[in-house]
Design a protein that fits this description.
single chain; 5 helices; alpha+beta; 60s Ribosomal Protein L30, Chain: A; 122 residues
């Protein structure tokens, strides 16, 4: 996909999944491209995860640039279905923003640091 600008290692994907599960259960997450875009623009997003199989890609193509612009760490997840499942949905979602990591605060911070180094963000 054209919007995926770096590879997320498999072991980090499972850590991200764990962080999303805990954040969705004990904190607050926003789901879907529109909600995630608003969260980034409002400065509420702590971490953004984008599915790699979004079609058409225009739905999420603006998210990496917006994250860079607002200095929000971001990464990718293999599929919309798995991303939705990680936050307790029965349907897929194109993107997820962690607003409040809840009990996953340390985990989300660690994930954010790793993703920043992968994406080349400071």
């Amino acid at each position: 996909m054209g919007y995926v600008d770096f590879e997320v290692p498999k072991e980090l994907v499972s850590t991200i999944k764990e962080g999303l599960i805990v954040s969705s259960e004990t904190g607050k997450v926003k789901k879907g491209a529109n909600e995630v875009t608003k969260a980034i623009e409002r400065g509420n997003a702590k971490l953004v995860i984008i599915a790699q199989d979004v079609s058409p890609e225009e739905i999420v193509i603006h998210l990496p640039a917006l994250c860079k612009d607002k200095n929000v760490p971001y990464g990718y997840f293999p599929t919309k279905k798995e991303l939705g499942q990680a936050i307790g949905l029965n349907v897929g979602t194109a993107a997820v923003a962690v607003i409040n990591p809840g009990n996953a605060e340390t985990l989300i911070r660690d994930i954010s640091e790793k993703l920043k180094s992968l994406s080349g963000s400071k």
